[in-house]
Amino acid sequence: MLVNRGWVGAGATRVELPKVAPPAGIVSVLGRVNIPPAGYVELKHEAPAGPVWQNLDLQRFAQVTGVAVVPIVVEQTVPVDRADILVRDWPAPDFGAERNRMYMFQWYTFAAMAAGLWLFFTLRRSK
């Protein structure tokens, strides 16, 4: 299982990778489960060469490393030790509730327009 421990600002180039040591020994990770997106924008369909990957593709990761992984990623939410400088500002999961509110607003607007147009044409006809 892969664990996303967080991120840290990059160096001036991709050659200068930040020095972030993994925790030593056996650790307990507190986090939340995330399913990586199946589709993403990619300029080249080649396996990344080197330690920096733009997107995490679990199938490609398993092919390149030879390590079988579970199709989920744990996003670590609490640092393991005090010396951990990684940023863990994960966006909240989107359950699509905002889309439903906009859909509701759209249909109430249509209903108000229908009632308004009915009233307008009814009063216009009676004159």
Structure notes:
- By secondary structure, this protein is of the alpha+beta class.
- It folds into 2 domains: 92 residues, no CATH class; 34 residues.
- Helix content is 30%, strand content 9%.
- The protein contains 2 helices and 3 strands.
- The chain has a 3-stranded mixed β-sheet, with no helix packed on it.
- The longest helix has 30 residues.
- The protein is elongated, with a radius of gyration of 25 Å.
- The mean pLDDT is 85.
Number of domains: 2
Gyration radius, in Å: 25 Å
Question: Strand-residue fraction?
Answer: 5-15%
Q: Fraction of residues in helices? A: 25-40%
Q: Which structural class should the secondary elements be placed in?
A: alpha+beta
SSE order in H/E notation?
A: EEHEH
What is the number of strand segments? 3
Count up the helices: 2
Instruction: State the strand order across the main sheet.
Output: 1-3-2
